[in-house]
Design a protein that fits this description.
The chain is mainly beta. It contains 1 helix and 14 strands. A hairpin with a 4-residue loop joins strand 2 and strand 3. It starts with a strand and ends with a strand. Belongs to the vacuolar ATPase subunit S1 family.
Length: 198
Amino acid sequence: LSLKFGDVGNLKGLVIRFLLTTSLYELSVQNWFSLHRLQLLYNHSIQATFNATRIYAPASYSYHCEHVSSLQRYDALLIPSSANDLSKLWEVTFIDFQIQGFNIQEGHFAYAKDCASLFSPAILMGLVMSLILLLVLAYALHMLIHLKSLDRHYECKASPAYFAQMKDNDMGDEKEPLRSSGNESYELRNQEFCKIYI
């Protein structure tokens, strides 16, 4: 697959050639295509060659990636094929890259297989944060379940009311003599108790 720039200024003689291969994978029981090599040609001579890594998709799909580059900061999917050629003098970066080599219908890309891995840094950070929040929630639930209620009953008993001996016989049914070594006194039977629940 060749990308020619035609009459675009200084890029008139520049051609980017994508070498695609297709093969059958028995486990998936379907054909997959892969970008095998990328070549930069200028004035009909090869200037640089890059081997492509991890750029593949089912033959009925297209391949999409936000960055396909030879730079390390973009994960370097393009690797110079040799240390002796001029590939190291070139820095190649495709932004919003999408390619489909086979089974193209009506001039449109098929469904795209994205290059984002299942465990990209953003996804890993999200999983770690979710795990931390889950642990905090589990600890909070554990503390709530094992929280002992303040069920201590604080009983406040009114101090007995003592009265001096009275000679009124009408009060006899409401008082009871107390046994003491000193003066005779009486305590009310119907003492009130109060309980405080917290």
